[in-house]
Amino acid sequence: MHKIFIIIRREYLTRVRKKSFLIMTLLGPILMASVYVLPIYLTTLTDEVKVVQVLDESGAFVDQFRNTEDFIFTPVEKSFEQAKQDFAVSGDYGLLYIPKTELSVPVTGIFYSTQQPSADITSHIKNVMKCEVESLKLQSYGVDPEVLRGIQSSIVLSTIKIDESGAEEKSSMEISLALSIFAALLIYLFIFIFGAQVMRGVIEEKTNRIVEVIISSVKPFELMMGKIVGVAMVGLTQFMLWIVLTVFIIGIFMVSMGNEMAAGTQQMMTTQGKVLSQEQLAQMAQEGQDSGMAAEIIEGIQSINAGAMIGSFLFYFLFGYLLYGALFAAIGSAVDNETDTQQFMLPITAPLIFSMVMLGFIVGNPNGPVAFWLSIIPFTSPVIMMARIPFGVPVWQIWLSMGVLVLGFLAATWLAAKIYRTGILMYGKRISYRELWKWIKYHD
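The structure corresponding to this sequence follows.
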């Protein structure tokens, strides 16, 4: 056991001292934090106000275009050809031309610009014209548009979980869904990344003949376990540093931005996939819908058991990695270069890939029989169970899954050790599945 600890220490210190480890440890949190802060920060940047000329021959829309923080709408009264000529030399952002049609309510417009128009101006113009056309049509039918807008309602559906004791707890499907996919994806990526590191490390030591010197002092099984656990410790260290540094970076950004951060977050609010205008945001604030939305998000986050999520993640990452790491180490010991690993990689990685393929189905029915069995099978349980936990899983299922995963890890380690102890000293021979089976059946 003492020799295993020595190998773990060697693997850990060797890898954490590499420049690549330090670079990725610093770069990872910056990339993760930028996914959150960059979109909000960009919304706080104030571009120059763009001038849009409006030539409305129908006369139905010219008064409906009101200036915003980003655009100034300037009505023009001249012929269409003259307006185009003047616009070409004006330096303005765009010219909106609404032709007069034979219809009582015109529904077409043409936007001229010296550059590709942005989505915010085109969506704003279409939204203004759409609202005005609808109002004119309602008036033609004798319906007051304000009455119709007054009866429009927004439904808020709260979800509450009731446990076996009858206690009630608010939940949020959206928060659970996001957390489910995020946790499953992290498990999947970490197992692949650090499992591949074990395999490459074994191949490198084997091809450099360093392993011949090492196993003169330690048993092959001790060498395999020390390498696997050492890389696992590196992965856990990097993951914890990523969490701490990401939270630190986001915290500094939020404190430094202050009110601008809040304004940027508000600008990013969307309803049914459309960006809300300032008038709509003000109306939502008056109705209390935005505060209700924020309260729902906060309550949804509070309903997640953070301790259970972190503990489960660490367990499934560790034992999922140990299971696959042992198999990756066995593959590395059986070949002489990374090119030869392809024939053995697919059977091992297929369950992981299948887990990600099934992820959409699992989050749609997290308590169904398919989700249950995939969260029990050791090769798929690290990804599938982490996808299920945010939605609420009975404790006995979690314990059963963990127990079976530990047994699966022990079985995989025994199997990998049989291959590793023979393959680690094999050189210059292309290994087949039949050869691997002989190594597994070999008895001392």
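The chain has a mean pLDDT of 76.
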